[in-house]
Design brief:
single chain; mainly beta; Immunoglobulin-like; 5-stranded antiparallel beta sheet; 4-stranded antiparallel beta sheet; globular
């Protein structure tokens, strides 16, 4: 058993996950579960926009993500390098080590900020 003692919590709003999503990025993109995410826009093979229901106060929030593949090859999830975020969306993409886009069945994105 462990005890946690906290005297003061500060910046609570910026330390909480304000939006997250678990979605299938193959075929017709489908959200499995989410918080504060209204939809996913499929922008082409391995490329998506995560749309947030309640916008952040600025586009300077932090977004992290990961994807998983179940068959052959390697793939990584990254934020888009061209205008990746607005206050209400973040662009993410899956790519193989050779740089080609790849749809994956398990994509997870979480956003932190205020």
């Amino acid at each position: 058993m462990s005890n946690l003692t906290v005297d003061t919590l500060t910046n609570q709003d910026t330390q909480l996950c304000k939006a997250w999503v678990n979605f299938d990025g193959t075929g017709t993109v489908a959200i499995r579960n989410s918080y504060n995410v209204s939809s996913i826009t499929d922008r082409g093979t391995g490329s998506y926009t995560v749309n947030v229901t309640v916008p952040f106060s600025s586009a300077d929030f932090a977004a992290v993500g990961i994807s998983r593949i179940t068959v052959g090859g390697d793939v990584g999830l990254a934020l888009s390098s061209s205008s990746p975020t607005t206050t209400s969306s973040v662009k993410v993409g899956n790519a193989t080590s050779t740089g080609s886009g790849r749809d994956t069945s398990d994509v997870y994105v979480a956003c932190f900020g205020d």
